[in-house]
Write the structure tokens for this entry.
Amino acid sequence: MKVLDKEFEVMMTQEEIDSLVSDLASKLDTEYQGKDLVIVAILNGSFIFVSDLVRKMKLDPEVIFLKYKSYKGTRSGEVKVQLELEDDIEDKHVLILEDIVDTGKTIVRISQDLKEHEPASLKYGTLFLKPDCYNSEVELSFIGKELPNKFVLGYGMDYNGKGRSLNELYQLKD
Ligand code: IMP
Ligand code: MG
């Protein structure tokens, strides 16, 4: 399938993604039972994942979206804050959720910013992780699935703004 100037092929079906999201939802229900949970989701890529996830959860977490941007085309770059935290997370259990973690630069930057707000706990989760690229001390407590080091799109993730609405996960053809 062609998106802008590049060819992509299916890497994961809608059903496979759905079962990863269901597994994460039940893990979070167990982990945060009886706690005041705030999910901080990172825009833009996580909007589909997190909206599916919270609807599968039995708990009813608060959901906040922040916007950080790092990718340019198919490469990781400098992290910029585009939407800041205005909500109160002090003494709440905060879970930062990403669609996909690559170098970890975005998550390091977010973690520095949110620690200043003194949450009761701060954990990190991602639907997908590229372990070969990960280069950060931050521990990811919830990982949907590890992926090979390939550029992907679909299920919220984009290539220069396109491809987010695709239901499957696609990888760049080499
Ligand atoms: P990091 O800061 O290098 O970990 O990059 C993380 C951010 O880059 C994620 O929030 C994604 O939105 C984006 N990203 C990383 N890998 C991909 C990819 O393969 N396709 C699309 N976006 C990606
Ligand atoms: Mg992102």
